[in-house]
Write a structure and sequence with these properties.
The chain has 220 residues and is α/β, with parallel strands linked by helices. The chain folds into 2 domains: 2-120, Response regulator (Rossmann fold); 150-212, Winged helix-like DNA-binding domain superfamily/Winged helix DNA-binding domain (Arc Repressor Mutant, subunit A). It is 45% helix and 11% strand. It has helices spanning 11-21, 36-45, 63-73, 88-96, 109-120, 157-167, 172-179, 183-197, 202-212; strands spanning 2-7, 28-33, 51-54, 79-83, 101-104. Strands 2-1-3-4-5 form a 5-stranded parallel beta sheet, sandwiched between helices. α6 (157-167) crosses α8 (183-197) and α7 crosses α8. It is elongated, with a radius of gyration of 19 Å. The N and C termini lie far apart (51 Å).
Length: 220
Amino acid sequence: MLQLLVVEDHALVREGLVRLLGQIEDKTKVFEAADFESALTVLDNEGEFDLVLLDLALPGIDGFAGLDILRRRYPAMPVAVVSAFDDTPTITRVMNLGASGFIPKAFSGEALLSAVREVLAGNLFRPCGQQGSRLDDAKPLPPSKVSVRPDEIGLTDRQAQVLALMVRGLSNRDIADQLELSEGTVKIHATAVFKALGVTSRTQALVAVARYGVDFESVF
């Protein structure tokens, strides 16, 4: 028998997910929790779970911190994030924290069930072709109480250095001089940075840095 847990604070969404997940197979038991503390209680009291579906925007805890706690406390238990915050850096960070999947809330019921089956089969699920929302019109991220390392959102060391210097207001030429690179190489790194952040300009990249709380302390 499958045993699943839905952790979601919005009752309507939670109840919909519980009903939907009950369709996966005949003998499926779906538990629910409206907050992270309740979820831990269920996990401690109800034996082994085949999968936890976790919302990022829960009351009382940073969603990324909650995911990290689950992965450390129950390392053998798959956790899939189901969230409306489906931009590229968020998805990358979720997967880097050890989630078995990221399922956008924009998915249809059929697509969500397909993604859940993929995770239950032991595979990782990430939405195909996800390029991230534009920073101009993206939904606000859940508040983050912890800083984010550049590698957590998919940046290499050199890309992080280029972004850190962008934040300081340096031009591509100035960045090239400081890092002893050609200006063309800096542009290549900048393009990679924009792609990782799901943005298309320097201005949007700076907004993203502020929104994600990127910590450049260990970059140089």
